[in-house]
Design a protein that fits this description.
Blueprint lengths: L2 H5 L3 H4 L16 E7 L6 H18 L1 E2 L2 E9 L4 H14 L4 E4 L3 H14 L2 E4 L15 E3 L4 H6 L2 H7 L5 E7 L2 H17 L2 E8 L7 H10 L3 E4 L4 H12 L7 E4 L5 H7 L1 H4 L3 E4 L8 H14 L5 H20 L4 H8 L3 E4 L2 E5 L6 E2 L2 E6 L12 E7 L14
Parallel strand pairs: 1-3, 1-4, 4-5, 5-6, 7-8, 7-9, 9-10, 10-11
Antiparallel strand pairs: 2-3, 11-15, 12-13, 13-14, 15-16
């Protein structure tokens, strides 16, 4: 089954999954997990893969504390108000306490605050620094590297590779995630004496980027830094290549959405483009190899970032329940704080002070089609590393 076929399975199989175990236990005895993600709208593909990631981990685990596991998908529509309302409903009506999702930073911030008020647990892969910074709270954990680390591990190594690239142009989504990436990039530009020759803001609904790319070409930068995500970064890159911009300057997509994005774009578009990535299926760790094998068995495909992020986020809560030997959220939070574990990217650590997972971020470079060893070998890992603000510098205060 190809990735496109997975996305065509339809609402019955993806939006409201059936109970994982039906008859051995009473329904009310199940431990309820929820996957709140945009299952419709411009980021639906990311949400549907994230749904498959939670589904896979729940099915593998089966039960905890002699109780079955159950999960439900919540369509946030990518809207904070909808995300909060559906989270509230799941908490009150389904007695759900364990949530993993919130692909967009705006909805993740809203859900985290609400679940902190209600007494749940929320693990997210959203990028805004505020999630484990100024808006950190007891309920929210973040697996993904925030915007600060993503820029540090992409812009800095690219500057080292191209020391003569002095002029940079940015294209930025105008919401908290985009602002975080842009501010981090500006700080490096200033530190390194680089010229930021222009920035183009766009909305979350934008699909046509020709005007922004025309402005970028007119500024004659050495590097085009694309700071949007998902289908928007794909549309931006596709249109940039069609305008011949890839032949005029280096292109860096700071936050790629992974394998599904490369497959959609194709090798010719990705060739020689640089991508920042939270995850790549070729990472050489035992945990990742096990996920790749399980994903191939279950879906006939390699895992992408959205799927892998939801899988590891759910895993973090499952391990917390095991360690606490309880589903009491205060006890599970205490068990998760400070935990060290073998994760997708190697040794990963949940920092107690702000609930940020310390893990690697990757810089990839798109391969030529002739150099691909298999259908999914779109990129090579050029570098990886960890860059995180201290909790105090990130303005996190859990008290």
């Amino acid at each position: 089954m190809r990735r496109r076929d997975l996305l065509k399975l339809g609402a019955a199989s993806l939006v409201v999954p059936a109970p994982i175990i039906r008859s051995a236990w009473a329904q009310d005895d199940a431990i309820q997990f929820c996957a709140p993600n945009p299952m419709s709208g411009g980021f639906a593909a990311n949400g549907k893969y994230a749904d498959l990631g939670m589904k896979l981990l729940i099915e593998q685990t089966g039960s905890l504390l002699d109780r079955p596991l159950r999960y439900t998908t919540l369509d946030t529509e990518g809207k904070p108000a909808t995300a909060v309302r559906r989270t509230q409903e799941a908490f009150e009506q389904k007695h759900a306490r364990f949530f993993a999702g919130g692909i967009l930073s705006s909805e993740a911030l809203a859900m985290g605050k609400e679940l902190n008020r209600l007494g749940g647990i929320f693990v997210t892969t959203a990028g805004a620094d505020e999630l484990t910074g100024s808006d950190c709270n007891n309920a929210t954990f973040r697996w993904s590297v925030p915007t600060f680390g993503a820029i540090e591990q992409t812009v800095r190594p690219l500057i080292e590779q191209y020391p003569d690239a002095k002029r940079w142009f940015t294209i930025t989504p105008q919401y908290v995630f985009g602002e975080g990436l842009l501010n981090a990039a500006k700080n490096i530009f200033e530190e390194k004496g680089l010229e930021h020759v222009g920035n183009a803001y766009h909305s979350l609904d934008e699909r046509e980027f020709s005007g922004y790319l025309t402005n970028a070409a007119a500024a004659k930068p050495d590097v085009l830094l694309i700071l949007n995500f998902g289908s928007q970064s794909s549309d931006t890159l596709r249109q940039a290549v069609s305008f011949g911009i890839k032949d005029q300057m280096t292109i860096l997509v700071a936050w790629a959405s992974g394998l599904e994005q490369f497959e959609t774009l194709g090798a010719d578009l990705c060739e020689d483009v640089y991508f920042g990535a939270q995850y790549w299926h070729g990472i050489d760790t035992d945990f990742n190899k096990n996920l790749v094998s399980a994903c191939r068995d279950a879906y006939g495909e390699n895992p992408n970032y959205s799927l892998a992020g939801a899988y590891i986020s759910t895993h973090m809560m499952v391990e917390g329940i095991k360690k606490a030997e309880s589903t009491d959220t205060d006890e599970v939070i205490a068990a998760m704080e400070g935990a060290d574990y073998d994760g997708l990217t190697g040794k990963e650590h949940i920092r107690k002070e702000d609930h940020q997972v310390l893990k690697d971020y990757y810089l990839l470079k798109g391969k030529a089609k002739a150099d691909m060893e298999d259908d999914d070998d779109y990129a090579e890992i050029l570098s990886s590393g960890q860059s995180f603000l201290d909790p105090q510098d990130a303005q996190c205060d859990m008290s």
